[in-house]
Batch of 3 targets.
Target 1
Amino acid sequence: MHHSEKKIIKEIHINPDNCNGCRACEIACAAFHAKPKYSSFNPSRARIRMVINEINDEWVAIRSGSFSKTECKGRSRYIINGKEYSECSFCSTICPDRTIFKEPDSDLPLKCDMCGEDPEQIPMCVQICSRQALTYSYREDQVHMPEEKIGQDLETGLGALTEKYGLEKIKDAVGRMVKKNRF
Ligand code: SF4
Ligand code: SF4
Ligand code: SF4
């Protein structure tokens, strides 16, 4: 049995040609998600990270996507206009093979949430980008999914985290974050 519903799809358009690597998007994201809001500006807590390689002229904004408990074995290496990019450059996965997109205290994944549900809310990284390297739009889409899949996403995410870090560590991390008023 399939369930069909209308969903808002939010999109961030990334134009690396316009980017100057200022990293304001990282700061804005980290500040917006700090608890209390705007109380800290630590880019290592950002859900968007600039992949910067000045020698290779590599300035690519990557937003974090799904969590994976294992790194992938087969990888893609892109060569664009004669420039070779490192193999994880364009990947948004929160994966054990990289240090970015993990909360520095707890190591828990930092997934981009598009700055909330409201489609009229322009994501903070887009708002701060003065170069039009990030722009925003949204559209309505019909989404089909098996009924049994509904509600499974959260369970799958928590299950993967528990398997990787152990239940005690997850409970610890959540407890510390609640204490520090991070939720
Ligand atoms: S704010 Fe815009 S110009 Fe600055 S690093 Fe981010 S994407 Fe690039
Ligand atoms: S960052 Fe992405 S491409 Fe690189 S190992 Fe992890 S999943 Fe694979
Ligand atoms: S959309 Fe929001 S949560 Fe996602 S990277 Fe941009 S500022 Fe961060």
Note: The mean pLDDT is 85.
Target 2
Amino acid sequence: MEKVFLQKTDSGFKDEIAEKIGLEEIKPCYSCGSCTGVCPAHEVIADFDPRRIIHMIVLGMREEVLSSDLIWFCCLCNSCYFVCPQGIRFSRIARELRKMALAEGYVDEDFLKGLSPVNDFLQDLCRRTLFQKVKEGLRGPHTMPCWRKYTVKNG
Ligand code: SF4
Ligand code: SF4
């Protein structure tokens, strides 16, 4: 288990992100792991774990989160939102983390260029995996408009 040094943490980190998103998106997470269980990116990059990233935000691990390559691997597919009992939309959190990482100089143009082929692969994988899972009967408390034809038909 990774050690957390409290003197290095930023207790306002979660509030900063919640404020940017405009909702109390972070605090209600109770680490059930449903998001990680359906995440297509997690299936191919085991270290990418939305539950863990949220936990790190709640702990105030600002520097570790913003400097991590992992925040760039979310393909923004919203599969996790579909199953999250708390209605947490990790894609919105990921977008804010990336904006902050860019604004604060944690990444540069070369990094983003290098990421491009990985992102193309993940986008395609996420799109195919999500629709396949929904068609196979995956259920969740939240539905995105673009999934409705599948969830209504199956529901
Ligand atoms: S599914 Fe929602 S409540 Fe559960 S760990 Fe993920 S973000 Fe937290
Ligand atoms: S939006 Fe998709 S890729 Fe990103 S954490 Fe959620 S399920 Fe994973």
Note: The chain has one domain: 8-154.
Target 3
Amino acid sequence: MNPPTHVLFILTYRCNLRCPYCVVFNPVRYWRPDDDVAIPPALAREELTTQQIVERVIPQCEQAGVEVIALTGGEIMVRKDAREIFRALGDSKLKWCIDTNLTFCTEEVAETIIDAGCDTVFASLDGPPEIHNKLRASPRAYKTFTEGLARLMHARAAAAESKTSVALNCVVQAGNEAAVCDVVRIAAEYGVDSVSFQLCSKLDYGEVFQADVATQALAAARELAKSLGLRMSVFPIPDPTPADLTSWFSSPPSAAFFQGCSYIYSSLRIDPSGNVIPCVEHRIGNILEEDLLDIWRGSVYESFRAQIMKTPIKACLRCCNMDSRQGSNPGIESIHPVQTN
Ligand SMILES: C[S@@+](CC[C@H](N)C(=O)[O-])C[C@H]1O[C@@H](n2cnc3c(N)ncnc32)[C@H](O)[C@@H]1O
Ligand code: SF4
Ligand code: SF4
């Protein structure tokens, strides 16, 4: 079994926002109701220390041959040691990227991200001001986001050289179907490099989604992105038709798209307490107790993989990392496209 190529490291479940659609606050906590190794939520609230991250998690990923570590949350920048962690990643041989809502992207934070050599910053924008604020349930979300983005782009421009690529990530859902072109426009206005559109994966999706409007808007956004020289991707269905989108947003989730999962053969996740999980919160082991490769190749992980390939769980049906019928795991490429300028 080859080593994992990607690690998604959930630094914290804490967040300053409460976006109603968020996977963190609508989690699939347990992968089977009778699962006796699922993680008690309280356990995952205990966070690894800076020292444990710098001296254990990062070296373990390096030794295991991991290529890319992606930091996510919650909001990673609520951790006071975020800059220290960025610097330690910069000193490692790993490629690394971060997901953020940019609320706490001060000048110092922006400079550290660039100086430490982050490969890709994925910044979350769900639409123009009114829509972004509504979907992010905060009247100041757009303002703080764009202020943080401006600081980041300024830090990149001020650096003698920078390999950091900046991408906007937009969760397509009821409420921003018609606004995807605005996201591309805003991306161009701030000088970012690419835009990814991710179909909302919330399982109990109850809102009315306008599939025709979204399909046309995504096609127009693609043209616009091309004319503005921006890379654009949609996942996990790269080029959805109205029927695809109607089906994706149907409740209960449709089984039409799932064609298997290569994510669990190439990627793993580490939760804030160091638990190694495949995707949903199912504890395979803990990085403080066992070597990463032993967990990756161990019998608990193997039996999880075997069971998924036999019978996908509900979360697979609306998962951004599935192998969809239109492409083999476009999610991984979109989530971790390490690019250099
Ligand atoms: C969980 S957030 C963590 C990082 C940070 N707090 C942020 O919002 O960017 C990581 C990414 O997942 C996206 N996301 C959250 N809930 C989602 C959902 N239900 N379906 C698809 N993407 C989702 C967010 O918009 C964000 O781009
Ligand atoms: S900012 Fe990110 S982690 Fe926080 S609630 Fe929104 S999507 Fe979730
Ligand atoms: S498709 Fe793969 S990554 Fe997604 S929930 Fe299923 S097993 Fe996990």
Note: DSSP finds 13 helices and ten strands in the chain.
